[in-house]
Amino acid sequence: MRQNTVVFDKYGIDPLKDKLALNLDYITNYELITVSEDLEHRADLISALQYDRSDLDFIILEYNDLGHESEIVKGMDLKLPDLAQALYVISLTKKVSNTTLQASI
Known about the structure:
Layout: E1 30-34, H1 43-51, H2 57-63, E2 77-81, H3 83-104
């Protein structure tokens, strides 16, 4: 009998199912910031300040290989991906997810 084992990281994410990571190489431009005290643990606020929208916090986390915003600490350098390239990567991820979903139906 075959047994399936799924391994999740400490944040409950299955890295084998995370399609976004597969496309991060398309992002070649970014702005480097040093996290200030008021931005510590606040990927949503960083996203809002950088992109005028807080819902892109996940791309900042993923691009910096962070599993959770609690890993954003004062004094660390953080790469903020170019908005156009980040949106392109997100669109690729959605296409992959939709194709996978349709193939499994």
